Amino acid sequence: MKFVFDLDGTICFQGKPLSKVIIDALDELACHGHEIIFASARPIRDLLPVLPPHMQAYPMVGGNGAFVAKDNHIISTVHFEEDVKNHILSMIQLHNLKYLIDSEWDYAFTGNEDHPIRRNVDPEKRAKQIPLASMDIIMKMVLLEIPDPGLIMSQLTALPVVVHVHGNEGILDISPPGIDKWSGLMKLGVEDQSYVAFGNDANDITMFQHAHTSVMIGCHKELGSYASEQVSADEALIAQRLLSFCRLHECLTT
């Protein structure tokens, strides 16, 4: 069986790397022959630092589907079309918005250095922070500290883009059209109803819709409609649920 895991708020918390109890449970899954896939809103660059070295070659979906990686190589990327990109950049300039914008590897950032999202951006200095004007290809945009979210959201909904609202963080996460976690999983050859999904937010809905079993961590009203079950956001309880899949596998094979 394949197991697909969102990261932040699902199996890692407060931007910190996976804890030992989670790593041990994931390793146990792998030892029982299960395939582990990570699917995050983070670009691949920022996904790697929270994983132990032996998991950094696992299949990954980053940027909510804009990036797909396997065996330490990015195998697929999707970027904004030129006219859409320019339209959003004009909005940013007009409203003087703060942002985190990702190219295929490097990034541009104008938010406050103490913004919660900043600590997750390239902590291992794998990339370069570059001027937005020098960024030809854009894969993902995150708008920060928005003074009038309703106005900006109304303008974005008129464009061919996917927008995820992260209310607790006060950000709008924008991707090219057709990009979501399920689209990224399909590029890895994952088939419908062939995997167990763990997630905690609205950007996990598509991978829940196509999962055999979907496990919601914590409580999210919108995601809950698609969840098979719910586990509290407690690392020990999450690890216990993962290990129960191993025990089920043992029962089925004996």
The helix-strand sequence is: EHEHEEEHEEEHEEHEHEHEH
Q: Which stretches are poorly predicted, pLDDT < 50 over at least 5 residues?
A: none
Rg computed from alpha carbons, rounded to a whole number of angstroms: 18 Å
Strand line-up of the largest beta sheet: 5-4-3-2-1-11-12-13
Main sheet summary: 8 strands, mixed
> What is the count of structural domains?
2
CATH architecture of the largest domain: 3-Layer(aba) Sandwich
Average pLDDT taken over every residue: 93
| Alpha-beta content class | alpha/beta
Summed up, the helix count is 8
For this structure, the CATH topology of the largest domain is Rossmann fold
Described by the principal axes of the CA atoms, the overall outline is globular
- What is the CATH homology-level superfamily of the largest domain? HAD superfamily/HAD-like
DSSP helix fraction: 25-40%
CATH C-level name of the largest domain: Alpha Beta
GO molecular function: hydrolase activity
InterPro entries: HAD-like_sf, HAD-SF_hydro_IIB, HAD_sf
Protein name: HAD-IIB family hydrolase
Organism: Paenibacillus dokdonensis
